[in-house]
Write a structure and sequence with these properties.
Blueprint (H helix, E strand, L loop, with lengths): L2 H7 L8 E2 L2 H6 L15 E2 L4 H14 L3 E4 L18 E4 L6 E5 L4 E5 L4 H9 L3 E2 L12 H6 L7 H4 L6 E7 L5 E4 L13 H4 L8 E8 L1 E2 L3 E9 L2 H14 L4 E8 H5 L14 E9 L6 H9 L7 E5 L3 H12 L1 H5 L5 E2 L3 E2 L2 H18 L3 E6 L5 E7 L9 H18 L15 H7 L2 H14 L12
Parallel strand pairs: 2-4, 3-4
Antiparallel strand pairs: 1-2, 5-6, 6-10, 7-11, 8-9, 8-10, 12-14, 12-15, 13-14, 13-18, 16-19, 17-19, 18-19
Helix pairs in contact: 13-14
The structure holds flavin-adenine dinucleotide.
Flavin-adenine dinucleotide (FAD) binds next to strand 3, helix 5 and strand 10.
């Protein structure tokens, strides 16, 4: 279909709701890591739920595949079209209104194209917060967060976005709108259909709005930065801290030495002496008078072999430490050939997983491990840098071998091959390998129900 035909099909849209300019379109055809580059002849920027409903009807009638796109920060190639498949991009950036902030029952109704950070800033005006937080918050949209069931750095206290969704507005096959944006918390009226759309990566329909739970903003936050030479000591710290600080822990992040050393390439340098560091964020909800003293008292007599202990004194210092943690994915982009993973492993088996997988990889390659992640949620970005001796024509073979080693150990230790980033294009083959055939068949059956013409993000997940 050429550009003129596409323009005719979508003639019900205002001029500002689409673009045929190839430079604009091309910017939206490449994913954040630059690993997936596709093509498209039109990009749509609809401003209303009714416009999206019409788009879906037109696409079904004309067999045009739609790629839903939020902030395009996804890390599995889910938000970009494939090459030469006649796919069009539906970007949600114009659906960005906050429809209602409800301070009686602590909820917000928000359109899916709202940038996560914009929502967070707006809620701060009311001393409230939406707890989802991650390095991409300045670009990702809440619709993308829902479609990927995003986890982020505060999962340990608030769960993933799924646990904070009270209602959804979704447009699915035939342009049908499923709208349930009520702020009620209890609703046992048969199957809870909204759960199917959370984490569906744009394969079942377009999410246009949501009702989220919101929370009182803590009075202050402090970060404890700790170093240790072995991961078992970090895990003991986790176990101990969850008992003494309970739900005051709002983040528990792990970084290995290599993940911090690569920060030099983007101008972040500091003293690194230990093999592992962790960043623990503690939140003061109970108006404790001197929160730093309170924390120091609690950890004064613990019998753990930790070093390089720093406790932040103010928000500026918190930002400095978060910047270290959140800059790791940016620094990784500068490395030549890093094979990335987003696994989750039961904590009691985490050390064994790391040791065995490190050993196996190092036996086969001259590999360096860039390990970091939301360890408090079992989530490890276990990334393998094999840049040194690999020729470009060997990359595919190495990638497969490395993935086989990492994922077979993930399965062996009772983990998941995708903790929070999803499947997209990147992990499609791995999903086939590590998910049971029965589960995959049932997933495909659900896809058929909501997308009988296969127009929603084809070639992703399945
Ligand atoms: C520096 C950095 C740090 C990150 N940290 C984290 C982290 O801590 N935790 C985490 O979970 N992820 C993290 N991510 C990954 C990414 O930011 C999340 O997956 C995020 O939720 C994607 O949102 P987005 O708006 O960019 O979605 P996109 O990338 O645009 O899309 C992601 C998927 O959702 C679909 N989609 C988007 N909008 C809609 C919609 N309205 N309706 C239906 N489908 C839709 C797309 O088709 C695609 O399949 C990080 C990424 C970066 C670059």
């Amino acid at each position: 279909m050429n550009k003129e035909e596409l323009k005719n099909i979508f003639q019900f849209l205002e001029n500002s709701e689409y673009s045929l300019d190839q430079d604009i379109i091309n910017n939206h055809c490449i994913d954040w890591r630059g690993d997936f580059i596709g093509t498209s002849d039109i990009i749509l920027f609809p401003k209303s739920t009714s416009a999206i409903s019409k788009i879906i009807k037109a696409c079904e009638k004309n067999h045009i595949p739609i790629i839903p796109q939020g902030g395009n920060t996804g890390l599995v190639g889910g938000s970009v079209p494939r090459k030469d498949k006649g796919e069009i991009i539906l970007n949600l950036k114009n659906m960005n209104n906050i429809r209602k902030i409800n301070l009686t029952d602590n909820s917000v109704i928000i359109e899916s194209g709202c940038i996560l950070e914009d929502l967070k800033k707006k809620l701060q005006e009311h001393e409230m917060e939406f707890p989802l937080n991650m390095g991409s918050k300045g670009s990702c949209q809440v619709g993308g967060n829902i479609a990927t069931n995003a986890g982020g750095v505060n999962y340990i206290k608030y769960g993933s976005i799924r646990q904070n969704i009270l209602g959804l507005e979704v447009i699915t096959t035939s342009g049908e709108i499923i709208s349930n944006l009520s702020s009620i918390k209890k609703n046992n009226t048969g199957l809870d259909l909204k759960q199917i759309f959370i984490g569906s990566e744009g394969t079942l329909g377009i999410i246009t709005a949501a009702t989220f739970r919101i929370y009182k903003k803590p009075q202050e936050r402090c970060i404890l930065w700790l170093g240790s030479d072995c991961v078992s000591e970090i895990l003991k710290t986790y176990s101990y801290f969850t008992k003494i600080f309970c739900d005051q822990i709002s983040s528990f992040e792990l970084m290995n030495k290599k993940s911090l050393e690569i920060l030099k390439k983007i101008g972040i340098e500091f003293r690194i002496t230990k093999e592992y560091y962790c960043l623990i964020e503690l939140s003061n909800f109970q108006d404790i008078q001197n929160f730093q003293d309170y924390i120091m008292d609690k950890i004064a007599n613990i019998n753990l072999n930790l070093e390089d202990v720093i406790l932040t004194k103010n928000e500026q210092e918190n930002i400095k430490f978060w910047n270290i943690r959140e800059s790791i994915p940016l620094a990784e982009k500068k490395e030549n050939f890093v094979i990335k993973h987003d696994v989750s492993i039961p904590l009691e088996r985490m050390e064994q997983f790391i040791n065995e997988t490190d050993q196996k990889l190092k036996k086969n390659f001259s590999a360096e491990i860039i390990n970091f992640g939301h360890i408090g949620d079992n989530n490890l970005h276990y990334n393998v840098s094999v840049s040194k001796n690999i020729k470009p024509n060997e990359e595919k073979r190495v990638l497969k071998k490395v993935n086989d080693i990492v994922y077979s150990n993930t399965t062996k230790f009772g983990g998941s091959i995708s903790a929070e980033h999803g499947i997209g294009q990147l992990r499609k083959d791995d999903l086939k390998k590590y998910k049971s055939r029965f589960e995959l068949e049932k997933m495909k059956s659900i896809k058929k129900i909501f997308d009988p013409f296969d127009i929603f993000n084809p070639g992703k997940i399945f």
